Amino acid sequence: MEEFLASNRGAVLSGSGPVHVVLGNEACDMDSMVCALVYAYFLHKTSAGGALVVPLMNIAAEDLVLRSDSVALLTKTGLSPDLLLFRDQVDLRRLCADRGLRLTLVDHNVLPDSDSDLEEAVVEVIDHHKLERVTSCPVAMEPVTSCPIAVEPVGSCATLVAERVLQRAPQLLDAQIAILLYGTILVDCVDMVPEAGKVTPKDSEVVLQLETKVHTLPQRSQLFTELQQAKFNVRGLNSEQMLLKDLKSLSGPELNLGISVLYLPLQDFLSRPGVEAELSAFCQKMGFDSLLLMSISLTSTQQPIRELGVFSLSQPIREQASLPQFSPGSSPGSGRVQAGFSCDPGLVCAGNSVASRKKLLPMLKDFLWSGQELMVPPTPVNSLVEGCPLDQGLSPTELQTRLSRD
Ligand SMILES: [Mn+2]
């Protein structure tokens, strides 16, 4: 695997001739990363003609640190991030124009608008999301697709990639490849627990086959727990990286709202030295009027605690909120962070009461409904823990429902 990654990465960066890129989705979560890695390796080993195949991580190299669970899995397999090719390191349009480009999409089935000009390069799709890759034929009104598409509603796209490897090139399944696939399926299928509602019979079957074939795999639940905990690991991240780790934005006619999921207790984040200046700088940099901080952390017994805070640069919004100020650390009254409270009944954050939570609701409602067509983009698959307020994407109604629970 290392040899393949190093040599093909080099040949893409400084060689000539056509390139076949395997590309995951823009969230570049563990599933996208591993599917790109393993499927590119599979194509490299199995296609006749020795086409230059390379997995491309669909994020900037500097953002890898934000995918702490993926970093943990890479570390476990001994793969250095330096072997990976990232989106900011290669110009796909230039490759396409100068050398010829073939694209295989994994873990998504339609390119985002920003990449729609690369559509003609797509030669294959392997995915487990809802199929959106259709163009309507004006006459028959039947969906028309232009390339081989394998879309199945399994828990993890890695299941589909693993299935191909198992069926067509089982000799490739060394300890490294197996653990990449195994760890990803376990994370996506929440430790294969049926109650979590993610696992399908095919996921279970593939996991069993991997366990049967590769005897060096770590114990199932142990690996799952390790990777799950890595997701919460924000050690070494600065405040901006924490805010970026799971960031979504909402914009309406009168509003630019950021929503950041923080993987630590809200109070811990707000106690960071200089946090208010950092929040302010972050909002300015990203063009947000306000920032919703949704934190999720685990108790010692692994129970999730969710908390919410609002930071706003806008005086009217702060006044509208008319909430008791949430004081970061020991500096009361500095407050542009207007509220901090828990979404969970009975777990109320410092300085807040149920009353203040109720006052905040209309403000959030105004935020979220200020645009007629306001839609919250879907949360990147896998980027959030089960049951997080943003899981499955956040609709205004859902948020309000969650916040109204007393
Ligand atoms: Mn996926």
Automatic annotation (TrEMBL):
Pfam families: DHH (PF01368), DHHA2 (PF02833). Coiled coil: none annotated. GO terms for molecular function: exopolyphosphatase activity; metal ion binding. Signal peptide: none annotated. It comes from the Eukaryota. Gene3D superfamilies: DHHA2 domain (3.10.310.20), inorganic pyrophosphatase (n-terminal core) (3.90.1640.10). Keywords: Hydrolase, Manganese, Metal-binding. GO terms for cellular component: cytoplasm. InterPro entries: DDH_dom (IPR001667), DHH_sf (IPR038763), DHHA2 (IPR004097), DHHA2_dom_sf (IPR038222). Residues 224-368 form the DHHA2 domain. Its cofactor is Mn(2+). Belongs to the PPase class C family. Prune subfamily. This is DHHA2 domain-containing protein.
